[in-house]
Design goal:
This protein is of the alpha/beta class and about 475 residues long. Helices cover about 40% and strands about 15% of the residues. It has a single domain, classed as TIM Barrel, CATH 3.20.20.80. The strands form 5 sheets. It has an 8-stranded parallel β-barrel, surrounded by 5 helices. A hairpin with a 6-residue loop joins strand 9 and strand 10. The protein starts with 10 loop residues before the first strand and ends in a 6-residue tail after the last helix. The relative contact order is 0.14. Bound molecules: 6-O-phosphono-beta-D-glucopyranose. The site of 6-O-phosphono-beta-D-glucopyranose has 15 residues, from loops. One of its GO terms (cellular component) is cytosol. Belongs to the glycosyl hydrolase 1 family. Keywords: Glycosidase, Hydrolase.
Length: about 475
């Protein structure tokens, strides 16, 4: 008997996001999105953080989301490759401005909807379960210019209009939905995650939490709407997760690590439990933030709790109190260096046991089914004799999947599925680079968007295929 195994009906597969995969900028009458205005290079981060207005860029910059890896035109070939690997689930996102080009119109753009219907049908053809992220880092630019994006309450209705169209059009075809990708990213990359740029003297914390409040209300309303339209719908939250270790056993370090984790769990606490946690209300008081939650909103939050909790996990982090300068990167959040761990080429600390710890922490906190919707290694690949031997990616994924199996079989955690990130190579969200690759399938394209776009299965493709076929027993 193998040590590792996933439950029957466990959904193993992969994930992409429209802004990093699709391209197809001028197809289907698509409108302009925030992500279409974020360049690669040194201006990317200040823009993503809302500190630099993209309108102030010179004209000659490279906007990778506009072409990405041309998934818009390769989707049927790509889904065929996923089917060859035996995928049970494919997570992808809707480009809001492909369906509602300006965001505040009442009627959707049929050409955009048809595209997503084709993607869904293609999945169903191979018995691949579609898992849709309704919003993964994109906002129609018109909604940013006209309403100030999520700082404005009106966004809730525009988002709900999108949800209504998707839930009715794809009723019976799609069962699994996520309301907002990494909803906690709004506090860290407010323009990329939510279309927010800030005025010079604006109180950034006030605007960010107000916008977050609007997204949380929108998310709860979407859950209720999805259930109303089809009781078979299962709707999940999605959090950028990763456990945080205190740097030392100094209680101050533990306190700080806990505060840090709470700034993320704040979102799931509301989405899963249906009310603002007391620590958040006290925090608003201390910071003099004006986030008023009226009775109607309290009811909306209480009624719209999620069916399951999804999250991304790439790395753990270390937090300390002594302002150590020994920092490294992680999925946007920085961390102190952990002397016990190795890091990826981008400084993200590789911690498979941290994955099991994270699964346990979240399950202990909420006791609801979990879904791992992002995990993987961003790495450079080299093509030698037409082949990519990405043993480093296999090592990363194998060690994480083993811990996932232990969390399920030894800790008793209910996990619905696992979708590795960027199953087909795509553009990096944080850096805009193409060379930071996650896929089982190589895409022939360079940093300037040049290349044949040819898809080439890597060594990990064949390895993952066996993992799926054996439902984890070959791990
Ligand atoms: C998550 C996002 O933050 O991490 C993805 O949901 C992103 O969009 C992924 O691509 C990996 O991050 P990066 O910066 O390596 O692309």
């Amino acid at each position: 008997m193998s040590k590792y195994q996933f439950p029957d009906n466990f959904l193993l597969g992969g994930a992409t996001a429209a802004n990093q995969y699709e391209g197809g900028f001028s197809q289907d009458n698509k409108g302009l999105s925030n992500v279409d205005l974020i360049p690669n290079g040194e201006k990317r981060l200040p823009i993503a953080k809302g500190l630099l207005d993209p309108d102030k860029l010179e004209k000659t910059v490279n906007f990778p989301a506009r072409y990405a890896v041309d998934g818009r035109n390769f989707y049927s070939k790509d889904i065929k490759l996923m089917a060859e690997m035996g995928f049970k689930v494919y997570r992808f996102s809707i480009n809001w401005s492909r369906v509602f080009p300006i965001g505040d119109e009442e009627e959707p753009n049929q050409a955009g909807l048809r595209y997503y219907e084709d993607v869904i049908d293609e999945c169903l053809k191979y018995k691949i379960e579609p898992l849709i992220t309704i919003n993964h880092f994109d906002v129609p630019v018109n909604l940013i210019k006209k309403y100030g994006s999520w700082r404005n309450q009106k966004m809730i209705d525009f988002y709900l209009n999108l949800c209504h169209v998707l839930f009715t059009r794809f009723k019976g075809k799609v069962r699994y939905w996520l309301t907002f990708n990494e909803i906690n990213m709004i506090l860290h990359l407010p323009y990329l995650a939510a279309g927010l740029t800030f005025e010079k003297n604006e109180n950034i914390l006030q605007t960010s939490y107000l916008a977050a409040h609007h997204q949380l209300i929108a998310s709860a309303k979407a859950v209720s709407l999805a259930h109303e339209i089809d009781p078979n719908n299962k709707v999940g939250s999605m959090l950028a997760a990763g456990c945080v270790y205190p740097e030392t056993c100094n209680p101050l370090d533990t306190w700080q690590a806990m505060q840090d984790e709470r700034s993320s769990y704040f979102f799931t606490d509301i989405q899963v439990r249906g009310y603002y946690p007391s620590y958040a209300l006290k925090y608003f008081e201390r910071k003099k933030l004006n986030i008023s939650i009226n009775d109607e909103e309290k009811n909306i939050l209480r009624r719209g709790t999620v069916d399951f909790i999804s999250f991304s996990y790439y790395n753990s982090r270390v937090i300390g109190n002594n302002n150590s300068i020994n920092k490294t990167n992680g999925n946007i959040f920085t961390s102190l260096k952990n002397p016990y761990l190795k890091s990826s080429e981008w400084g993200w600390q590789i911690d498979p046991l941290g994955f099991r710890i994270t699964l346990n922490q979240i399950y202990d906190r909420y006791q609801k089914p979990l879904f791992v919707v992002e995990n993987g290694l961003g790495s450079k690949d080299s093509l030698e004799d037409g082949k990519i031997n990405d043993y480093y990616r296999i090592n990363y994924l194998r060690s994480h999947l083993r811990e996932l199996s232990k969390a399920i079989n030894e800790d008793g955690i209910e996990v619905l599925g696992y979708t590795s990130w960027g199953c087909i190579d795509l553009i990096s969200a944080s850096t805009g680079e193409m060379k930071k690759r996650y896929g089982f399938v190589y895409v022939d394209m360079d940093e300037n968007g040049q290349g044949s776009l040819k898809r080439i299965p890597k060594k990990s493709f064949y390895w993952y295929k066996e993992v799926i076929a054996s439902n984890g027993r070959t791990l």
